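Hypothesis: this fold can be encoded by more than one sequence.
Test: take the structure tokens below, design a sequence, compare later.
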């Protein structure tokens, strides 16, 4: 038996987080992984916000407390894990993998389809969830720094497929909300020079966003109405989920706004159900689009294109400072900051329990 430490987030009060422990035993066909390091970003808050409707809570389920109506969940994170115990042929103690882990000290998985490239978790409760999250990739130096991989690799994949979609769009201008978020930065860097890139951000992040060099123009949220002066067809890519900002962009651009894509919820605690003029927003669900691109290009073709774009982006991230931390209390404190919107975009949190 192994004692596992998990961080449980209250589903209806996302800033509430508590340490919990449970005993686990590795059964036949299972492997226990030590979760070594993982990134913590606004993307993880999006997982919590959409834990119900997109079923993110279901990946690492928490047993409800008897007699309590309060529900908790484990937030998924991206990072690196090492095999601590294995009862799976072909999977050895000490092997390391990049993938989708619980915010916890350990993860019990059911690996199958093992190859030099990695494996797939076939645990029964994950079979009806988005398949893109079930793959674990053998750790390799080919993608560079593991901290950068944990921080950007899953987010950059979303930015990459967004860019591929927008590449074929007739729009001449992209308006990105939450311009300091890591996915927005990835998209802005990829599309820079092809389309005009306008970033919307808070006053405290404006200087940072401008300094990245990825945007043609940066506006504070309070100045979003200035978009009325923009000419030509445009698309909104909304990473904030802020209904008032989305409404201002729609109203300011009017019929020049040809596309409105909803990607994230960095402003997760702000209402986003205001009536919108013009084009109807469409929810962008990255796993579906990734599957479509793989079907079109094949797995090797997808990975080759992604790796080429990734190398170009990572070379541009000289603005980032990695902040490392370890321990349940440390991770919980950082989570409370993320939930409160206290994120320094020039810093990347690389943590472990």
């Amino acid at each position: 038996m192994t004692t596992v430490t998990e961080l449980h987030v209250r589903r209806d009060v996302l800033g509430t987080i508590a340490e919990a422990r449970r005993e686990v035993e590795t059964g036949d066909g299972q492997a226990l992984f030590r979760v070594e390091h993982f990134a913590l970003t606004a993307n993880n808050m999006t997982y919590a916000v959409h834990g119900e409707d997109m079923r993110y809570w279901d990946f690492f389920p928490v047993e409800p407390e008897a007699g309590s109506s309060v529900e908790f969940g484990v937030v998924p994170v991206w990072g690196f894990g090492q095999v601590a115990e294995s009862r799976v042929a072909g999977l050895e103690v000490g092997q390391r993998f990049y993938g989708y882990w619980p915010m916890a000290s350990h993860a019990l998985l059911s690996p199958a389809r093992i190859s030099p490239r990695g494996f797939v978790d076939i645990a029964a409760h994950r079979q009806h969830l988005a398949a893109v999250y079930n793959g674990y990739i053998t750790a390799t130096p080919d993608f560079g720094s593991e901290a950068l991989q944990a921080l950007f690799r899953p987010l950059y994949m979303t930015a990459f497929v967004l860019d591929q979609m927008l590449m074929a769009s007739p729009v001449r201008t992209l308006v990105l909300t939450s311009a300091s978020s890591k996915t927005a930065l990835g998209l802005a860097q990829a599309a820079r020079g092809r389309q005009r890139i306008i970033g919307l951000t808070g006053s405290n992040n404006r200087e940072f966003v401008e300094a990245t060099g990825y945007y043609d123009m940066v506006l504070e949220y309070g100045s979003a109405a200035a978009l009325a002066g923009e000419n030509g067809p445009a698309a909104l890519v909304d990473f904030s989920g802020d209904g008032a900002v989305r409404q201002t962009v729609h109203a300011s651009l009017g019929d020049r706004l040809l596309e409105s894509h909803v990607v994230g919820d960095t402003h997760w605690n702000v209402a986003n159900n205001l009536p919108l003029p013009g084009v109807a927003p469409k929810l962008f669900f990255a796993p579906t689009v990734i599957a479509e691109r793989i079907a079109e290009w094949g797995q090797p073709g997808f990975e080759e294109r992604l790796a080429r774009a990734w190398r170009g982006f990572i070379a541009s991230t000289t603005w980032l400072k990695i902040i490392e931390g370890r321990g349940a209390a440390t991770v919980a404190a950082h989570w409370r900051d993320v939930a409160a919107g206290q994120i320094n975009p020039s810093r990347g949190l690389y943590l472990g329990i």
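Residues 152-287 form a domain with the Rossmann fold fold (CATH 3.40.50.720). Residues 6 and 306 are 33 Å apart (CA to CA).
Hypothesis status: open.
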